[in-house]
Specification:
The chain is globular. The chain is mainly α and about 425 residues long. α2 packs antiparallel against α4, α4 packs antiparallel against α5 and α9 crosses α13. The protein is built from 16 helices and four strands. Strands 1-2-4-3 form a four-stranded mixed β-sheet.
Length: about 425
């Protein structure tokens, strides 16, 4: 057996075993704390809501374990079992058009193979816990829109990358990285105004009192926005959220209608102050720079693999081509980078604390505590995650640690302030 094959199988086994172990820890830790609300939250969250969050977390994890095993089998089928060679046999893969069709066919098959889990997640798990509001027709329409959008955006991008691999010589990977970076930035610019409206309705915030409060906050923070919008998130889910999108003058502030309905104006102001903190502290730029830097390393590695027979043979592939190289690289890259996940999340949690610090300076930290507790309850987020699982997987600090941090900043009534 080829050395790279052994490395591939070893990494696959390590990643799968680690995921199973962490999931096992999380399931048992959440279940062990199911029957009592943590004292810090006892006055704000009922035992029934706490148990719902525990059961929801466990249900999602159990589905994720099955999905993880399914994904592992699919990866083996595509690689060592000859799936990619079989698919490539239906196209003139060495040609530019054939390579594009080959990759699109793989993406289409991948979407269809993942479809059962999307359906189960939406219409079984989310439905069971009262979050799903998506109908089957709407689900299918979203799926069709997503596929058409993939074709409209993906075909030119894939064709350009494959053309660079053929025509740009040994430095094709650098030009490819420039193209990818430009694509990433353009998508961030285009998402709020061109893409998101294809799936949701965005209406200007109509609550004048809330609008004045938010505009005053923006002025205090020195933040310029293209507008304040409310998104019809309740069309698909009862989960609440708020986010920023866009770059430069195209930045938008978007509130889910479910969040507007559930939080008070002062709580909304505090949540927005936290989000503003990410921009004012430079977190968005830092994460974008890190992402572009990591993609440079990935493209540089990709540039070294074009003529590496051991890479193809080690993954059980006989048909070598630029399109095959792209697919293989995308498929196996997560196995070589999964150990970076806790480091990335550590940085993300640091940013969350910094954004909370910013919010406490420009809004009432007690109101932010109340908003977070309400969101934890409404979104059925567990208050008792396993520490190791959370350190590996969670991009946000665990609820007890985050609330304690905010209380130290002057949050007053703590978790009790949510009611």
């Amino acid at each position: 057996m080829a050395t790279f094959t052994l490395i591939f199988l070893l990494l696959l086994a390590v990643k799968f075993a680690l995921d199973l172990w962490l999931d096992y820890r999380q399931i048992h830790h959440v279940a062990a704390h199911r029957d009592a609300v943590p004292p810090r939250f006892a006055a704000a969250i009922s035992l029934e809501a706490h148990q719902k969050a525990a059961d929801y977390s466990v249900a999602r994890l159990r589905l994720g374990r099955i999905e993880g095993g399914y994904g592992l089998l699919l990866l083996l089928v595509w690689t060592l079992c000859g799936g990619l060679d079989w698919l490539a046999g239906h196209f003139a893969v060495p040609t530019l058009s054939g390579g594009v069709l080959f990759i699109l066919a793989f993406m289409l098959l991948g979407s269809l193979l993942d479809l059962p889990f999307s359906l189960i997640r939406t219409f079984v798990v989310e439905q069971r816990f009262g979050f799903n509001r998506t109908t089957l027709p709407l689900f299918l329409v979203d799926l069709a829109k997503g596929m058409l959008l993939t074709l409209a955006i993906g075909v030119p991008l894939i064709a350009l990358l494959l053309w660079l691999m053929q025509a740009a010589g040994n430095l094709w990977w650098f030009y490819g990285w420039l193209v990818w970076s430009g694509f990433t930035l353009s998508m961030m610019w285009a998402f709020p105004t061109l893409i998101a409206p294809l799936f949701n309705k965005f209406e200007p915030l109509s609550d004048e009192a809330l609008k004045e409060r938010i505009e005053a906050l923006l002025l205090r923070c020195g933040f310029a926005s293209k507008g304040l919008f409310v998104m019809d998130g309740s069309k698909r889910s009862s989960h609440g959220n708020a986010y920023f999108s866009g770059l430069g003058s195209a930045k938008r502030i978007v509130f889910f209608d479910t969040l507007i309905q559930r939080l008070t104006p002062t709580q909304i102001e505090a949540v927005l102050a936290h989000e503003l903190g990410h921009f004012r502290m430079g977190h968005v730029k830092k994460m974008l720079a890190m992402m572009i830097g990591m993609s440079l390393l990935a493209f540089a590695a990709l540039g070294q693999l074009g003529s590496a027979d051991w890479f193809y043979r080690g993954l059980g592939v006989a048909q070598q081509s630029n399109a095959m190289l792209l697919l293989l690289f995308v498929l196996v890259l997560p196995l070589f980078t999964f150990f970076l996940t806790p480091l990335s999340n550590l940085l993300s949690r640091k940013h969350e604390f910094e954004a909370d610090d910013f919010a406490a300076q420009h809004a009432d930290s007690g109101e932010l505590i109340g908003a977070l507790v309400r969101l934890y309850e409404d979104n059925a987020a567990t208050l008792t995650p396993d520490p190791l699982y959370s350190a590996w997987h969670d991009s946000h600090p665990p609820a007890p640690i985050r609330i304690a941090h905010l209380e130290q900043l002057g949050g007053g009534g703590g978790a009790e302030s949510s009611r």
